[in-house]
Structure formats: structure tokens, C-alpha cells
Amino acid sequence: MELRQLEYFVAVAEERNFTRAAERVHISQSGVSAQIRQLERELGAELFDRSGRSVTLTVAGKAALDHARAALAAAGALGQAVGEVTGLVRGRLTVGMVVGCTVTPLFDALAAFHRAHPGVEIFLREDNSDRLVEGVRSGALDLVLAGLAAAPDGLETMTVVSERLVAAVPPDHPLAGRDGVGLGDLGPYPIVCMPYGTGVRTVFDRACAARGLQPSIALQAGAADAVADLAARGLGVAVLSESMAAAHRDRLTALIIEDVETPALLALVWRGGQAPAVREFLRHARRAFAVPPQ
Fold first, then answer.
1. Are residues 59 and 142 both part of a single domain?
2. Does residue 150 sit in the same domain as residue 175?
3. Sequential DSSP letters for 2-59
């Protein structure tokens, strides 16, 4: 008796059709039929009633099905346990990142992970932070780098950036000579900021709502560089995090928004009960982002 025979048996039982089962296990129908026949000879009983239009389990087949599934699950667990011990992690890792955010340590971590575990397929997807976090919740994504206003409930996080919000203006702007600003000081000016679903925008919107303010959002862009570029051209006051604005210090003056104390976070987010690939990737990510092990 071989594991592949049990795999084919379970496939036929679940598909109730030899053709569909063969497509599922990626071999010919005749190959599936031959292996099932051999299994039946070894067990001394027919597992399927083949007389009808669809294949049904016999009494012996019904008795064998749960045991076959358990054997396959045990074999899979054995392989995973050995893989974890030897470091030979296999499978796939689906990572998400915020649109327009080039974070070199994330790419460094992905490259180091790939070198260590070339058997794992890596998939990378861009989206806004809210949708990325929902992707983790639904299981569509294993791990994401997202902008947050606070750690999401029920998920694990590793904060890699925590920064205050700033108002960034060109040197000739009326606010440019100040040391800092309040949210009320921004009222007379159009605002250029990131869209809904991003961490910076969520922090800004919540702070304004808490003070009963309704800022004039004139322009939105998904990438921090685009927000900064629009502000540098005099189209509005850019609302960014400190490091986002610092990349454009040659043409923008960054002023801390003093009454927004909640920081904007950039964090890795994943579900608890980490899969081996996620756990291994986090080890490389902590090194790349210089975050101490927890």
C-alpha cells in the first residue's frame, strides 16, 4: 500500500468521478484506475461501486475513507516537521505591501528569505493598507507591510516605523517660517494627502474629527513622493510622516503637527499561529529592519 494510492482513493471518493479525480492529482484516468484496482486487491475488497453514472463508495470504501485521510494528514505533518527542523521550508509565501512604498529592508528580507529557502514561491501584491490587513484576516495574504493608525485587533504586528505627522510646505509658504503648527493652522489652506485606507490619512482624519475640524482635502495621491511633489508645486500643504517629508527636505519644510500626538505606524502584520514560511520570513525581517526578537 502506497501513499499515492491513498491519495487517489480520497480524490475519487471526493470527486465521485475517475476523470475529475485524475485531473485533480494530475495523472491519467487509466493510471488512477490501475492504482485503485491494486489497492483493492491488497485490501481484499472493492472500495467503489462503479455501476452507476457516478462512482460511490462501498461499505468497505466508507470504512477506509477516514483512515486514508488520516494517513495522508499524518504524512503531511511528518514532512512539515522534518522540513522545519532541517530548515527546508517549502510552499508559498504571499506578501502584501502598501502602494507606492519602496521599503528597502522589506526587499532585503525577501531576498534573504529566498536565498535561504529557494523552494518557497514568493508572491508580492500592492494595495492600500486597509485592504492589505483584510487580506491577512481572510487568509488571502500571509503577511503584509501596512500603514496603520493602531495595531489591528486579533492580528500580530511588528512595528518598523513610528512617526509623528508633519505639514510639509515649500519655502515661500506662509507657514514655512514656523517651528510647528496645529491642525487649526491648516484650515485656511488646501491639503494634499494620501487616500483613505492609509495609515497617515487615518491618523490625520481621526485627529481632525476629534477636534471637530473639516480640512479641505484638495488632492490625494497614493505615493508619498507624489504628495510631496504636488505640495512643492504650491498646490497645497502636504500631510506626511516625518521620514516621508525628510526625503524632500531640499524643497519642502516639514513642520510637526503639534496637536496630533498619535504616531503613524508602518508595521508588518500577520495572523497568529504562524505557518513555517511566515515564521522564517519574520526572522529575516527582524534582521533587515533591525527589530530585536520578541
1. no
2. no
3. -HHHHHHHHHHHHHTSHHHHHHHHTS-HHHHHHHHHHHHHHHTS--EE-SSSS-EE-H
Q: What's the total number of domains in the chain?
A: 3
In degrees rounded to 5, what are phi and psi of residue 272? -70, 170
254 and 217 in a single domain? The answer is yes
Q: How far is CA 71 from CA 10, 57, 167, 170, in A?
A: 11, 18, 61, 67
Location of C-alpha cell 522564517: 280
294, part of any domain: no
Domain that holds residue 185: 165-262
Question: Residue-wise pLDDT tens for the chain (294 aa)?
Answer: 888 899 999 999 998 999 998 998 899 999 999 999 999 999 999 999 988 888 899 999 899 999 999 998 888 888 776 766 555 566 789 999 987 677 789 999 999 999 988 888 899 998 888 999 999 999 899 999 998 888 899 999 999 989 999 999 999 999 998 989 999 999 999 999 999 888 899 999 999 999 999 999 999 998 889 999 999 999 999 999 998 999 899 999 999 999 999 998 989 999 987 678 898 899 999 999 987 665
- The number of C-alpha atoms within 13 Å of 138 and in the hemisphere containing its C-beta is 9
278 and 240 co-located in one domain: no
Structural domain contains residue 40:
yes
Within 10 Å of residue 152's Cβ, how many Cβ atoms? Answer: 18
Q: Cα 12 to the chain's mean position, in Å?
A: 34
For the chain, the average pLDDT equals: 89
Contact between residue 134 and residue 96 where contact means Cβ atoms under 8 Å apart: no
Residue 60: other Cβ atoms inside 10 A:
15
What is the separation of C-alpha 25 from the centre of its chain, rounded to a whole number of angstroms? 29
CA angle 105, 138, 133 (to 5 degrees): 40
Residue 138 C-alpha from the chain's centroid: 10
- Of 51, 86, 121, which residue sits at a domain end? 86
